[in-house]
Automatic annotation (TrEMBL):
<protein>
    <submittedName>
        <fullName>Aste57867_5124 protein</fullName>
    </submittedName>
</protein>
Length: 218
């Protein structure tokens, strides 16, 4: 019984065929006398089925991009430790040896992954739209904290809501719950209008007519 026609295959050929059961749907190189399997364009790798390496004088086949494995650029390794095999990122160091950027959130020691934030803080800002910083562009975080602290300190009606600290995420959630548009956000502290849009000293110009009070809803 004849063996399979392909180079290096010792399986018996099928009846009325030169190929074994494993290679019966494989094509043979179109070059006469070549028993290699065709890779592309009906040719084996040796006869043009694979692109040659772009390096001058190299007869190897391209593996990564246009270069063979011998001429493909090797990744830079971490230089912080002689036995470290990780890829270098910043300053010749890998992430484990200080070559990564830290998360942009104050006090966070994790490395940034997406848009300057670590995975934990990126997920927390995208999961709840009320905590996104773009929604509070009209006020900085410090301005909003100061305004809320002064408002609670000067308004007798809200004294029982005073807290030891003010969380910007809690403030944003309250504003979203009250359906207040961010671009029309208005904070009135005592008798002083903090934002453009408050036209009076003693009453908020943006209050609803049905309110009948001397202060805005905040």
């Amino acid at each position: 019984m004849l063996a399979c026609v392909f180079n290096g295959c010792s399986n018996p050929a099928l009846a009325e065929s030169t190929k074994c059961a494993f290679h019966k749907f494989r094509d043979q190189c179109r070059v006469a006398g070549c028993t290699n399997q065709a890779y592309a364009r009906r040719s084996c790798a040796r006869h043009g089925g694979k692109r040659p390496c772009a390096h001058r004088g190299c007869q190897g086949n391209a593996r990564t991009g246009n270069l063979c494995m011998r001429h493909v650029p090797q990744k830079r390794l971490c230089q912080a430790a002689p036995d470290c095999s990780r890829a270098a990122r910043i300053g010749g160091r890998c992430v484990a040896h200080g070559g990564g950027r830290l998360c942009a959130v104050d006090g966070c020691s994790s490395f940034s992954r997406v848009r300057g934030l670590c995975q934990r803080h990126h997920v927390s800002t995208t999961a709840d739209p009320t905590t996104a910083t773009d929604d509070l562009d009209v006020l900085s975080h410090l301005q909003l904290d100061d305004a809320l602290e002064a408002f609670l300190a000067n308004d007798d009606r809200r004294r029982h809501h005073r807290a030891e600290s003010f969380d910007i995420d809690v403030v944003a959630a309250v504003l979203a719950q009250d359906a207040i548009e961010v671009d029309a956000l208005h904070v009135h502290v005592g008798e002083v209008g903090l934002l453009e849009g408050c036209g009076n000293q003693n009453a908020c110009a943006m209050q609803a007519p049905s309110q009948g009070s001397g202060h805005c809803n905040l």
